Here is the input.
Amino acid sequence: MPQEDFFPLTPSLWAATAAPAPDTAPLDGDAQADVVIVGAGYCGLSTALHLAERGVRVVVLEARDIGFGGSGRNGGQVIPGFKYDPSEMIAMFGAEKGQRLVDFAGSTADAVFDLIDKHRMDVPHVRRGWIQGSHTSDALKLAERRARDWGAQGVATQLLDRAETARLLGTDKYFGGWVDPRGGGVQPLSYARGLARAAIAAGVVIHTASPVTQLAQAGGKWHVTTKQGAKVVAERVVLATNGYTDDLWPQLRKSIINANSFQVATEPLPESVRRSILPEGHVSSDARNLLLYYRIDHTGRLLMGGRGTFREPDPAQPGDWSHLENVVAKLFPQAAGVPIAYRWCGHVAITRDYMPHLHEPAPGLLIDIGCQGRGVGLQTRMGQALAEYIATGNRQALPVAPSTIKPFPLYGLRRLYVSAVIGWYRMTDGGV
Here is the structure.
């Protein structure tokens, strides 16, 4: 997809309320580095920061602006873990490897909040826990298993009955749920900009408005060329573009489904309504296949997110977000009369097995892809792991082994089969 066709960042609540971006400029001449990172999102910036702290010379090249992709558009929920629970990961990968994955997955939220504190980032954030509501009796059994699984890993999980779920969420539409106390929320674009400021302070050079058009090897080095014709020569390249991946590396774009996640945000809630929705500061997403996720931000607005059309919506057509506005009214009738102030969307990188993927398709080239909707913590922690691997060569630092790039079958028909799956889920997922 051409870069100019992406939904703009500016209609989002985050663009309206974020801390200022650090000063950056396009790459206007040739440069050298130890490592070039393509993509100034959470993974790219975290990798850059942690490499620079080890004394590695890093240049980051970003096609648009810092956090332009999913890092500046997501719901700001910091949720630890992967799609799979600890017992599932241990069953899938064996006791030793599975436990390493569990430990990695369990550390992702800590990575975010530790960095915010360490670098004193100007990032509104809260850490009161994440609630997963159970919309059916089967989903309640899932909550029981997840609370038990993570409880066995030493996490102080809490299983919620229907009444307590209603009190903590502010809606009576769930059978129950569970609480993971490690979760929380951030202003996601401010966090991306905070990572960038910390990276620059550590010595990283970030060039925005510098889309990379070619990766080539010559003389034992990587030559990374931008649209303007300028290039950076380096020993290694990290490609961290996730849901905004293009055709820079063969077949990579076809190895994910870059589904759209839509969001709306209200005007600040009246105080009486504000006290009734997520009154203790939790963030929440439920157990639907087409999950709904919601929270209150630092300005007192209610955010609601979920899947939408595969195409990029039209900012001038509010009807493209009507499904979420209807959900707000049904799930939280006390907020039904509060006007919607912001509507936006962004891409989520979904892999075939719902796991993060790492690839090393050529010597010195490392690729990270796949967020599964938990990118804030996952990609922050992934950046730490990639930095350790690049700096030391220790493969045990990586949560998953590098694998071969495998495109989705019948990729050209993805819009059709994804639309069919979404239609099926809408009929069977349980309404609100």
User: Anything to note?
Assistant: The longest helix spans residues 375-392. The longest strand covers residues 340-350. The radius of gyration is 21 Å.
